[in-house]
Amino acid sequence: MEPTFRSLHPLFVAEVEGADLRQTNAQALLDRIRAGMDRYAVLVIRDQPLTDAEQLAFAQRLDGALHTKTGISALQKNRFGNEALTDISNVSEQGELMQAEDRRRAYSLANRLWHTDASFQDPPGRYSLLHARVVPPVAADTEFADMRSAYDELPGGIKARIEGLQVHHSIAYSRQTLGFEFSDDEKEKLKGAVQPLVRTLPRTGRKSLYLASHAHRVLGWPVPDGRLLLRDLSEHATQPRYVYRHTWRVSDLVIWDNRCTMHRATPFEDLTYRRELRRVTTLDIEPTPALAGGG
Ligand code: OGA
Ligand code: MN
Which of 28, 41, 115, 212 has the fewest CB neighbours in a 10 Å radius? Predict the structure, then answer.
């Protein structure tokens, strides 16, 4: 069956209907999803009862190599024994709800800041695929913001001023804004990366702002000037008209393009209710020729 796209927001985001992502030999389906990502930047695919292995395999079929250097990997070993599968949950190694003072909880709370995945690494993340396994009985949504539309609607003078700027992204910076402290060893592993502030998406030619809570220094600018510019751009880019809010159901898979969206978790009673999702992120490197074709 041909998957169809149903728009969920005036600017971006669609729901894909009629797709079974476990089908392993479905080139046409992969091409449709890649084309859908180019157009919508966020795709919601419901009722996908994926195992860990199926989620990992689908991400690789869709977009190639996987990210394994997530921020949390500098802090502790992965609960699933595979650094490509990021544990987005409020559950400890032992499977219990994390306590208020748990260090990993403090670390995860920073997902409530607007960000893009792995922008503090080189290469950064391209697509993230987040799959819902356990969803609380209260709203525990994720918000997404469209950085292409936010770029398009900047005044021309600002576009000219920011063209070509390079920005340092550091997860130590974004966590420190919430009072989270890293050891020297962890800091050594998380030195950060330099990224362009304006990106051009290769397949569509559209331009996009590349922002994140990790972005903290504009190269060649005095620190406060850079911080203020990044703050103003983030405020602009996360106005309600650019934002979509996803309410999770078990077995939802949401795919977003980190090059042209930001996202954040929204607060819920995380000390009371379990919430378990798993994320796989692909590397933003040149696609292999087999993946680049079609579309
Ligand atoms: C992520 C993330 C937000 C959420 O998985 O990268 O930021 O709502 N998740 O869990
Ligand atoms: Mn994230």
Answer: 28
